[in-house]
Amino acid sequence: MNLYLLRHAQSVGNMTGDYSTVAHDNLSELGQSQADALSSVINKSFSVDEIFVSPYGRAMQTIAPYLQSSNRKACVWGNLAEACWQTDVSAEIPIRTGQPDQIDICDSNIFLLDNFSGAMPFEDETFAEGQARVDKTGNEILRRYLGRPVNIFLVTHAYFASRLIEKFVGIKSGDTTWFDFDNCGLTLLEERTAEKFFVRYHNRISLT
């Protein structure tokens, strides 16, 4: 298995630093240009077997140009929403496991709900609950794809992607992330032996 982790293109929130408005989850003008360039890069340079995307608009908007140009669909996976950005990393017990609000699909022609998880995370999710979601996601990926010759793309977020890499390479997560992501940064994790992964490259993509 090859696992590609892609951070979304620049959002309005990334550009302004203001995440309090409804518009913050949309791509900025630069972000839309990045998404358009990304479509060309994937079409030219990558073999993609399955694509999973965060339920947030900035992630779906990032991969939409590629899906439209290639006549592909991506599965929206609630677990891929951003996680573990909080500064308080103390454990919260018990960790909630209920079903929050369901995901709204913005375009059913290119997106569909994954059959494993179709729910958004809690709005007041704690760091510990986010880490539990990261662990659950990693375990499900291993269950589905370990040992298979497949290329899996996850379109997600900076903190979530870093925490997932940490899980796959055996680094204990804490209040500092080990793997910083630029907008549209791409990391490739290669499976070497059973449940052992190697970071082939990190935070790299050419938007030309």
Order of helices and strands: EHHEHEEHEHEE
Task: Give the helix tally.
Answer: 5
Main beta-sheet strand count, sense and barrel state: 7 strands, mixed
- The gross shape turns out to be globular
Structural class: alpha/beta
Total strands: 7
Structure description:
- Helices cover 32% and strands 17% of the residues.
- The protein has 208 residues and is of the alpha/beta class.
- It has a single domain, classed as 3-Layer(aba) Sandwich (Rossmann fold).
- It is globular.
List keywords for this structure.
17% strand; 5 helices; alpha/beta; single chain; globular; Rossmann fold; 208 residues
Secondary structure elements and their pairing?
Blueprint lengths: L1 E6 L4 H5 L12 H17 L4 E4 L3 H14 L3 E3 L34 E3 L13 H19 L5 E6 L1 H12 L16 E8 L2 E6 L7
Parallel strand pairs: 1-5, 2-3, 2-5, 3-4
Antiparallel strand pairs: 1-6, 6-7
Brief sketch in words of this structure:
This protein has 208 residues and is α/β, with parallel strands linked by helices. The chain has helices spanning 12-16, 29-45, 57-70, 127-145, 158-169; strands at residues 2-7, 50-53, 74-76, 111-113, 151-156, 186-193, 196-201. It has a single domain (2-201), classed as Rossmann fold (3-Layer(aba) Sandwich).
